[in-house]
Write a structure and sequence with these properties.
Layout: E1 18-22, H1 38-51, E2 55-58, E3 62-63, E4 75-79, H2 86-98, E5 102-107, H3 117-125, E6 137-138, E7 161-163, E8 169-171, H4 186-202, E9 206-209, H5 246-258, E10 265-268, H6 275-279, E11 289-290, H7 293-296, H8 302-316, E12 324-326, H9 335-338, H10 342-355, E13 359-363, H11 432-435, H12 442-455, E14 466-467, E15 474-479, E16 483-488, E17 494-498, E18 501-505, E19 514-518, E20 522-527
Length: 528
């Protein structure tokens, strides 16, 4: 099969790309069953082109029992019927490339579904079978093997081990339905190189690598020695995360990616103790980008933001990788709610992010100013960690509510058959239809900002900013080319002098140029 790859050639396109995350369940429903799907995604690709993004990242659509919303993959080469068929996926790729958009797909290499052929065979063949060596099966501790092999905890709560009927235990850092692969086994490494080629042959432009830090475990699977291990994620060395052996895997993947024309990329979801550790995934012979969780987790405070920006840029510079910036995704509270301060603060945070050098990630619906849905009743929740004690907060469903497209009532144009999670009754003013053409809307702010980011020579790729003097609580930096970004993170207005022309503001200003009052929670871009 010859992949259709009609995207205009570019050099290092990912260094300044704006990448839009689509959560397939919640983006658009093409067949009226209340669940988003590939047909729905295809129908809305012109909207994403007009929004001004460069690439679209699709969360998992693979064949899966859906124990963890598709992150439990039963077949890496098949589409789950709830989303469509393989020809539907090819149609999305073809249409995206026709529109000048690139497509990045999720890849889940740390674990699979307990319905994966390998795991089912391992259970059937029993202890000592060679197929079990592709996972982490172990005998238990205690007099009769009744205790888990070590003290590791699942990120979804409870022990990271489940015992099977023959007495052995298997490792799962997430849900019991998600057994971890043993990446020391050559068959696992061969299989995933094959999976990469399968999707690259179809024409995908890259991969977002789920749990990229988790593939390799410390030799001997040593005890942690204490509980509440989830609290250590991202700030301490852990025997099951960010082991040095992962880098050999990604070097082999880079070789595969480089075999293909069109600048195919891989993006690491890597939780590491420091941004310097994250940078190791992005050495020139490894992956291309990594999510900047250190920035995402920074609050709305000028000093903290400046430190996070400087630290991020400083870490990426030695490996010549672009810094990435992100405010929301499918696993965190939407930034309109998370940052406090409401929509004004969310809009200000967006303009700050889009002015920074590197690549930016948007999560579906943030361009509409969607808040987190915090009042979902327990009976509709589907986040697996919600049903397990002592794990994550279990409230990820609030950012996964289907987005509103049109109309005055749910499902707001999402589809003809309702929506798998209920949408709020007050979202009519937030639909794409309601906001299109309204110069004060959040959607039009995003469209304008992305257009400027694409056309202004001072925006996009880069590796540094020049900080300017500013009052307490205000950030101001210059990009090469004379564009200045000024951000008031305080809760009070600040008097400023802008010796230039205001290009864009996150909210309306009383005076567009010269001396004026910069309101609280406001960002402006201006040209010297």
């Amino acid at each position: 099969m010859t992949p259709q790859h009609n995207v205009t050639p570019a050099t290092d396109w990912w260094r300044d790309a704006v990448i839009y995350q689509v959560y397939p369940r919640s983006f658009a429903d093409g067949n009226g069953d209340g669940m988003g799907d590939l047909a729905g995604i295809r129908s809305r690709l012109p909207y994403l082109r007009d929004l001004g993004v460069d690439a679209v990242w699709l969360s998992p659509f693979y064949a899966s029992p859906q124990a963890d919303a598709g992150y439990d993959v039963a077949d890496y080469r098949a589409i789950d019927p709830m989303f469509g068929t393989l020809p539907d996926a090819e149609a999305v790729l073809t249409e995206a490339h026709r529109l000048g958009l690139r497509i990045i797909v999720d890849l889940v290499p740390n674990h699979c579904s307990d319905q994966h052929e390998w795991f089912r065979r391992g259970l059937a063949e029993g202890p000592g079978s060679t197929i079990r060596e592709r996972f982490h099966f172990r005998k238990g501790r205690g007099e009769n093997g009744e205790l888990p092999p070590n003290d590791w905890e699942s990120l979804f709560g409870g022990p990271a081990w489940t015992r099977v009927s023959d007495g052995e235990w298997y490792l799962h850092l997430f849900a019991p339905e998600q057994p971890d692969f043993n990446w020391d086994h050559p068959a696992v490494q061969d299989e995933f190189r094959s999976v990469l080629r399968f999707w690259l042959d179809l024409g995908v432009d890259g991969f977002r690598v789920d749990v990229a830090h988790g593939l390799v475990k410390a030799p001997g699977l040593p005890d942690m020695g204490h509980g509440e291990q989830l609290k250590l994620l991202g700030n301490q060395v852990l025997p099951f995360f960010d082991q040095d052996g992962v880098h050999d895997i990604y070097r082999s993947w880079r070789t595969v990616l480089d075999e293909y024309a069109g600048e195919r990329i891989a993006v690491a979801e890597a939780w590491t103790p420091t941004v310097e550790r994250t940078a190791l995934y992005l050495r020139p012979d490894e992956l291309h980008q990594a999510f900047n969780f250190h920035y995402l987790n920074t609050g709305w405070h000028a000093a903290a933001l400046r430190e996070a920006i400087d630290t991020s840029l400083d870490a990426m510079r030695p490996v010549s990788a672009p810094t990435t910036w992100v405010l929301s995704n499918h696993d965190v509270v939407r930034h309109r709610t998370r940052l406090g301060g409401g929509l004004d603060r969310a809009r200000a945070a967006t303009l700050l992010m889009l002015a920074l050098p590197g690549s930016a990630y948007l999560y579906q619906g943030e361009e509409l100013g969607l808040p987190e849905v915090t009042d979902l009743p327990d009976e509709v929740r589907q986040d697996p960690s919600f049903f397990r004690a002592a794990g994550q907060e279990g409230l990820r469903d609030g950012c996964r509510v289907p987005i509103p497209w049109s109309g005055d009532a749910a499902p707001y144009g999402f589809g003809t058959g309702g929506s798998w999670l209920p949408q709020p009754a007050d979202w009519a003013a937030l639909t794409v239809e309601a906001q299109t053409g309204d110069p004060d809307s959040t959607l039009e702010l995003y469209r304008t900002a992305l257009s400027l980011r694409r056309t202004h020579p001072a925006l996009g790729a880069g590796e540094s900013v020049e900080w300017l003097d500013a009052p307490d609580g205000v950030l101001a930096f210059r990009r090469p080319g004379g564009l200045v970004c000024t951000v008031n993170t305080t809760e009070a207005p600040v008097r400023l002098t802008v010796p230039g022309r205001v290009l864009l503001s996150s909210r309306q200003l009383d005076a567009p140029d010269g001396d004026f009052i910069l309101p609280a929670d406001t960002t402006i871009w201006w040209q010297e």
